[in-house]
Amino acid sequence: MLCGPNIRSMFSKLWSMKISALPMGSNAYLQLIHEEDLGDALYLSYLKEVPGIFNVAADDAVPTKWCYRQAGVFVIPLPIFLLKPLADIGFKLKLFPAGSGWVSLLQYTMFTLTNKFKKASGWHPKYTSKETFETYLASRIRDAKDNFIQSILSWVFVSGARIRPTLSVLQIFKLGKIKAFRNIQPWMSPKKNSMTYLPISYKPETTTRKIPVEESAGESASEILPPRIVHDFIEKAEYHVIMDHCGCRLSGECEHFTADIGCLFMGETALNLPHGVSRRVTKEQAHKHVERAIGVGLVPVVGKIRVDNFIFLTPDKNRLLSVCFCCHCCCMMGAFKHLPGDHLDNVMTPLEGVHIEVTDDCNACGTCLETCIFEDIIIEIGKSRHSNKCRACGRCVTYCPQDAVKITIENPTTFTEIVKQRIESYVKVA
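Now predict its structure.
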């Protein structure tokens, strides 16, 4: 069974309950596999072109009861004939994450041998089942308990169904077409917001390697990629907090990207976010989170985003730096599309010196239209064209099947400092 710090499943829901039940008299064991071990197995099977169907798992198993006990769940042993109908009723009422079929399986130990795949690929698990479960438990550790308001927010943000109604407040952005309103409304005001998309599709022609976070740019400054800006902020910040999941993708039931990659927040105010759905992390963990988000194709938006203070009911003390990992389909950043382009330039400023160009290779297929969260692109005279609402996120560059959209930066050696200085004039992270 797949388990780990980033896995959300039926079992992780079971282990998050205060009270649960197991079949009376059962002494079953669970054989787990860590998410990293599964990733290594998939990579090796692809790299070595290993044909066939294989079992992959840790070499040991842990008692089911032990898992529940370690997770802090109070277990009530019930006769199987009583537990099965209760599970079905609870499942239908959405009070219990598993039905009677899973209850039946929990009576038994299912143990698999992995020798065949080990021999074919050279793979070996790095984690035992016990170590795997302990990494899951470690990801649940919180620095503090929620107060009353935070506990309500945690209850809301743990469920997509409960988040969905709250996002209706974003309809207020439609009033952003009124100049006087958008200038005074804090979520749209240039005095309260300064954020920038960092296009992951930008690759300088001189790039031969990515600069490690700990290295100085030095003579390799022309190789710096926009996401480096986030890594620099991580190094400077004292406090780093990651949301357990993305509320936008969770509520939108995103079909393109995982909801398990949540926003990263930095600054003193980040410590006041609801602890039930967020966790404080180290700089190293924050760096890895950013790389994971970029690795799956999410585009970072970094800066002072005033609406985040409202969402989490925290006062605006200019101490909350937000890093949203944006998808083109669910992200609340799409609400900013209702603002005029010239106003957006002062709120959601494109990366300084960035240019998006559509070449003659464009055949007007329309793929880019589907990936633009700002609905900025139009087809005109057999070619796509960007309007002044383009924020240079680079998604059109990534998804164009003709490779007809190019992104360039005029000042590759200085743009990171320009962006950081602008954002730091709005929010303090150190």
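The CA atoms of residues 133 and 201 lie 36 Å apart.
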